[in-house]
Amino acid sequence: MFLKIFQFFSKASKSPDLRRKFFITATLLAIFRLAAHIPAAGIDRGSLQAFFLGSPLLSLLDVFSGGTLANFSIMALGLTPYINASIIMQLLTYVIPSLEELSKEGEFGQEKINQYTRFLTVPLAALQGFGMYTLLRSQGVIPSLTPIFLIALVVTMTAGSMLSVWLGELINEYGVGNGISFPVSYARRVGRVGLTSSYIPLRVNQAGVIPIIFAVSLVLLPSLATQFLAGIGNPKISLLASQISNLFNPTSFLYNLVYFLLVVGFTYFYTSVVFNPERISENLQKSGGFIPGIRPGTQTSKYLSSVLNRITLVGAVFLGLIAILPSFFQNIIGVANLAIGGTGILIVVSVVLEVTRDLESQLVMKRYETFLR
């Protein structure tokens, strides 16, 4: 297996064009990592590191920021606001008819939606930057800032997030793989249906790692709220916050049960967003295609929904188990913190597979170009 991987990358490195793309990708990633070490103003690094060591939840959020949150650098927000904006826009295309029509207009429509996503990223980044400042201030990690310095901090963090987006898009255009997945550790899923093929590619894990990102965002809210409430100073509120924090400790049964159920639920939800049986059935009927033994139209849509639900069940349970297994092993082995969790493993595998598929497609294009010459 490792020999095949070595041979594959050896073959890819022989192409001058791919070598150039590798160099561009490595350079842009190096710029991102350098910027990730530029600290934001007014931060006590010692208190910040102690705060993160005592909070496994924030350590998990640090994974989605590309490792910049623990340093509280100007890139601390990473691509999290862009991810949120992308998810919101993707959901809105199924709610707002004008956006749905725009998404069907090919490359022009997709570019307009991407533009709207960037616009939405700016206020989300500013809001998340202010929220992060409020949380860290309540824990004594960052002092209270004057309005001018607070605005400067939020603007700087927003600019850092947009810089991450720009670097990711440069990798998309000039580098190898999905530029968003490298710094953010996030693989964006796009539903592709080959109507010219003899089969419809229904994957067991159609939603990718998006359900885990959704689930983490929700399951972390109680713990983040308790950390904020604990800094208020009211004894009764602090006691209530402590009790809620114990209930939603990452090693507790309730936390893992809620986490598992959220992952399963969001897997079904996002799969229905990415793969729309009614739209697939409509496209099949327009192109003259059909599923043998199934009448075109409504019957095809119902059949696809039935098959998709059965397949998604396996993928949803798999994602849920991967998400909670690290906590399970921590309780058995007694290790306080694992080096990498199930979420991190899924992210790494998704990125590697995406880069491999991108390289394979580019190698195939090179073969065709050689043949045409």
From TrEMBL:
Record's signal peptide: none
Residues that span the membrane, as ranges: 116-136, 148-167, 209-232, 253-271, 307-325, 332-353
Gene3D superfamilies membership: SecY subunit domain
Localization (cell): Cell membrane; Membrane
Gene Ontology terms describing biological process: intracellular protein transmembrane transport; protein targeting; protein transport by the Sec complex
Protein topology in the membrane: Multi-pass membrane protein
GO CC term (a single one): plasma membrane
Record keywords: Cell membrane, Membrane, Protein transport, Translocation, Transmembrane, Transmembrane helix, Transport
Pfam family, one: SecY
Family: Belongs to the SecY/SEC61-alpha family.
Record note on quaternary structure: Component of the Sec protein translocase complex. Heterotrimer consisting of SecY, SecE and SecG subunits. The heterotrimers can form oligomers, although 1 heterotrimer is thought to be able to translocate proteins. Interacts with the ribosome. Interacts with SecDF, and other proteins may be involved. Interacts with SecA.
Physiological role: The central subunit of the protein translocation channel SecYEG. Consists of two halves formed by TMs 1-5 and 6-10. These two domains form a lateral gate at the front which open onto the bilayer between TMs 2 and 7, and are clamped together by SecE at the back. The channel is closed by both a pore ring composed of hydrophobic SecY resides and a short helix (helix 2A) on the extracellular side of the membrane which forms a plug. The plug probably moves laterally to allow the channel to open. The ring and the pore may move independently.
Protein name: Protein translocase subunit SecY
Protein species of origin: uncultured Microgenomates bacterium Rifle_16ft_4_minimus_954
